[in-house]
Amino acid sequence: MDKKSIIMEGKSLEEAIENGLKLLNIGKDHVTVEVLEEGKSFFGIVKKKFKVKLTEKTIKYEENENGKFEIKEQNGKSCLSIVPSKGKGKPVGVEEIILALEKREINNIDKDKIKSILEEHKLFTINIEDIKVTDPIDEKVEIEISKGDMKAYMTIIPPKGGVKLEKYDIEKILKDHNIVYGIDESLIQEIILKKEYNQKQLIAVGKEPINGQDGKIKYHFSIDNKIKPQIDQRGKVNYKELNIIECVKKGDCIAEKTLPIDGIDGRTIKGKVLKAKVGKSIGFKKGKNIIETEDGLKLIADADGQVKLIDDKVEILQVYEVTGNIDHSTGNIRFIGTVIVRGNVRSGFKIECSDDVEVYGVVEGATIIADGNIVLHKGIHGQNVGKLISKKDIISKYMESCYAQAGGSIHSEVIMHCNLKSKESITALEKKGMIVGGEIRANMEVNAKSIGSPMATITKIEVGIDPEIKEQYESLKQELEILYKNKDSVRKAIELLTKMSKNTELSKEKQGILIKSKSTENYLNEKIESVNKSLVDLQNILQELSNGRVNVLSVMHPGVRIAIGNSVYYVRDDIPCATILRENGEIKIGPYLGK
Question: Which of 64, 191, 195, 215 has the most other CB atoms within 10 Å of its CB?
Answer without folding.
Answer: 191
